[in-house]
Every structure is written in C-alpha cells, then in structure tokens.
Amino acid sequence: MNREQAREKIIFALDVPEFSDIEKWSNLLAAKVGMFKIGKQLFTACGPAAVRVIQKHGGEVFLDLKYHDIPNTVAMATLEAARLGVKLSNLHALGGYEMMAATMDALDKEFKGGERTKVLAVTILTSSTEETLRGIGIEHSVQDMVVRLAKLARSAGVDGVVASPQEVQLIREACGPDFLIVTPGVRPAFASADDQKRIMTPAAAVAEGADYLVIGRPISAAADPAQAADMIVAEIMAVN
Q1: How many other CB atoms are there within 10 angstroms of residue 94's CB atom?
Q2: Strands 35-38 and 118-122, how do they pair?
Q3: Which SS3 state, helix, strand or coil, does residue 6 take?
Q4: Are 39 and 13 in contact (CB under 8 A)?
C-alpha cells in the first residue's frame, strides 16, 4: 500500500465547537487525511456552512448525523446530505429495513445511477457493551447484533456500515468484499483508549479489512497533529 492509499483511509473526526476551528484543521490536515467527519455538535452549531468550508479547501466530508426516524424523514434528510456533495453520510440500522430501503430508493431516483453520496448504516456504537444492549432489552451479543444489522442494511441496498474494527472480519464474511466498512474505535499505540470500548490499532483494523478509519483525539490531542497523522499513515502502509 502506498502513502496516498494509506492517507485516504483516514477520516479525521472534526469534533470542534467553533466555525473558526474548521479553517484551522482544514489548513493543517487537508494533505494529511482523506476525509473530515462532521458530527452533530459541529453541524448543529454551524450547519451546511461547515461542509462548504472543508470543500473549499479541497477536502471530502463524512456527514456523521446518524439519522433515525420514520422512513420518509430519513430519506429526505439523506437526500439533502447528498445534495451538499458529502462523500459519506449515515443512518441507524436499528431504524429497520423500510427506513433504509426508502432512503436508498430516494437517492437512486435523484441521482439515477450516477455518482452520489455513499450511505452507511450504524450498527452498534463502539461505546456499547453487551451490558448496554441488555439494558435496552436486546439479549443478543454485540457481535450477533452487528452482523444481523449489517446484513439487514445490505439487503436494503445500503452501501456499507459503521462498526467496531473487532467485527470487520465477521461483516466481510457476511456481506462480501464490496460492502464498505468504516471503523471508529481506532487507536494507534501512542494514544489512550478514552471512552471507546471495542478498539484496535489502525494497522490491525486495515488488515482485518476496514475501508476507512475514523480517528479524532489521537490526532487532535497530539502535540503535533500533522506528525501524528503521518505516523498513522506509516503504520497503515506497513500492512501487507
């Protein structure tokens, strides 16, 4: 794997509250990472303008808003995300087959087979454990639920999933080589685990078959964020 291929796998989690921070991180990391993730905090504070700033700097965006609502509402929200030109957006697989299928149908009608935003289904959050699932009445194991939800998303036409790196291999076996897998819970050796429970190093996650790695604090909290990103790229490049 060459440096550019490794760089493109990194999605930097732009978890910041201020509009001015977008310019700062875009300038610093546009050449170091493949994509910027805009989540609920930043999008609530700044709206679509946050996406446009990154695009102005030549960056790609993963709009991480995890839609979960009635089918038409999620379909229309995802359609607006696609019209913004983001590379990735997502919804919750727990919203069910009808919600996911309605979303993909809306995108297919709008873009008619052309280039469009790729949609990911969130399976089980990386902060969740089996105790978390039991607390909301789900008696299946985390791994069983992840695979079940990934297969449901695939059957609804969704492009891929967001899942812990520890479930990547199981998802690959269940959903095939062309199904996108985006993994949070990635922590290089030089970083702390923070609030993620099911974690893995970047090299291990890529070796398991992850397409993209969401990495935030190991880069943003580093003394030299650009250097930290370079270190992660080097680690990914070492994967055979």
Answers
A1: 16
A2: unpaired
A3: helix
A4: yes
Q: 91: which strand partners?
A: 67, 121
Secondary structure element (H or E) that encloses residue 91, with its range: strand 88-92
pLDDT tens by residue, 55-99: 999 999 999 999 999 999 999 999 999 999 999 999 999 999 999
**pTM for the whole structure:** 0.92
On the question of pLDDT at 10 being above 80, the answer is yes
For 24-66, write each residue's pLDDT tens digit: 999 999 999 999 999 999 999 999 999 999 999 999 999 999 9
8 Å CB contact between 195 and 127 = yes
> Which of the residues 40, 66, 109, 112 is marked catalytic?
66
Distance CA(87)–CA(59), nearest Å, equals 10
Q: Could you write out the DSSP letters of every residue in 105-116?
A: HHHHHHHTTSS-
CA distances from 197 to 10, 166, 186, 187 (A): 20, 10, 10, 11
The reply to whether 112 belongs to the active site is no
